[in-house]
Design a protein that fits this description.
Length: 171
């Protein structure tokens, strides 16, 4: 029982941090970056932090989620035969899509200032020392905008699915 509770807590805290960070970057930072009111260095620093959170939770969420599935949805047929199981699969799909969108969006921003390969990007992310005062923050924000906007939409849907799971599925 303690392990199950620990998995729940780690899963929920990680998901809250990740979705919250994504929504914060898109809602609070992106408009200022698009209008040039935010420096490129500050913007990239925050985007890199989102990337680190995405990668950290990209380990915690699948590990804790797999454990929760193993404990709560055995036999595994429950994942496709129950409403809660289908919501869990929807959550898993949204997690993958959201992760991919964030990675692609930030990679596109990074390649604006540094023609880097995928391996280097995966190892380094988007460190703020790659930009200087001459870097156009508007161009960086525009390159990543569609991907991060879609990731924010995924975050909202993830939160709705989580609320349905937490409150019991009414349908």
């Amino acid at each position: 029982m303690v392990l199950l509770t620990t998995a729940y807590v780690a899963h929920v805290i990680s998901a809250a941090l990740w979705t919250g960070a994504t929504l914060y970057v898109v809602y609070a930072l992106w408009p200022d970056a698009m209008s040039g009111r935010l420096s490129a260095k500050s913007f990239v620093s925050q985007v890199h932090k989102l990337l680190l959170i995405t990668r950290w939770t990209g380990v915690v969420l699948p590990v804790t989620g797999a454990y929760l599935i193993w404990v709560l949805y055995t036999p595994l047929e429950l994942l496709v035969e129950s409403q809660r199981g289908i919501l869990v699969l929807a959550m898993l799909t949204l997690w993958g899509v959201m992760n991919g969108l964030i990675e692609i969006g930030i990679l596109r921003m990074r390649t604006t200032v540094d023609a880097v390969g995928f391996g280097t990007y995966m190892a380094e992310g988007f460190p703020s020392d790659l930009v200087d005062k001459s870097t156009a923050v508007e161009e960086l924000a525009a390159r990543g905008r569609p991907y991060l906007l879609l990731s924010a939409a995924c975050a909202v849907v993830l939160l709705v699915v989580a609320a349905l799971l937490a409150g019991g599925t009414p349908f």
